[in-house]
Design a protein that fits this description.
Number of strands: 0
Number of helices: 5
Radius of gyration: 15 Å
Helix content: 55-70%
Strand content: under 5%
CATH architecture: Up-down Bundle
Largest sheet: none
CATH superfamily: Rhomboid-like
């Protein structure tokens, strides 16, 4: 899912997106984790990319490679919500990455010069 982002926007932007999604996701999880719990990984980035593509896919002049499946955004929200019903899942990590991805998507969605 990240390859089309890299092809259309470059490795630098993709790296910034990954770094911001990962750091914010893991920091958010750190605030809510039970004492002694262990977490780590890139699942927040995966949810962030889904959030980003879910928002950006609403643009009319979007390259086909960046179009996310129609239900991906809603499915991501459902999976995050269902995750909160179970323990042992880095729910806040998923939520944090998703929110940052949505914010990246909103910024790029509003840019007039994105695809000229």
């Amino acid at each position: 899912m990240a390859r089309p982002i890299e092809k259309n926007f470059g490795v630098f932007k993709l790296g910034l997106m990954f770094l911001s999604m990962d750091l914010s996701a893991n920091i958010l999880e750190l605030f809510f984790i039970n004492e002694g719990g262990i977490f780590g990984g890139l699942s927040g980035v995966v949810y962030g990319v889904m959030g980003y593509l879910g928002v950006l896919s609403r643009r009319d002049n979007l390259p086909v490679s960046l179009n996310a499946p129609k239900g991906l955004f809603v499915a991501s929200i459902i999976f995050i919500a269902v995750g909160f019903l179970f323990s042992g899942i880095a729910n806040f990590c998923h939520l944090g990455g998703f929110v940052i991805g949505v914010l990246w998507g909103l910024v790029d969605y509003s840019r007039k010069d994105l695809f000229k």
